[in-house]
Amino acid sequence: MLDAPSSTSIAAAAAAGLGVYAAIARLLPRDLAAWHDTPLPPLPAIECGIYLREGPDLESLADAVAGALRPNDAASSASAAKSAQR
Known about the structure:
This protein has helices at residues 7-15, 58-69, 71-85. It has 86 residues and is an all-alpha fold.
């Protein structure tokens, strides 16, 4: 196990052949390749929360962030919200 202060250090260790590490595919360094069908157990789902104080225009900001992070869910939520308003 490597305990390093940054993901750059961990990526460098993996690039040197010292092991593997989990990374978000779009953030994977160019000198590393994704390994999809590994013999390792699957990683758990990633969850996060974004909490905003109440205030003007913050709901639209929250919707924009949600749309960027989860475009399929945001489209479904927006569609459901419009249907509920009718």
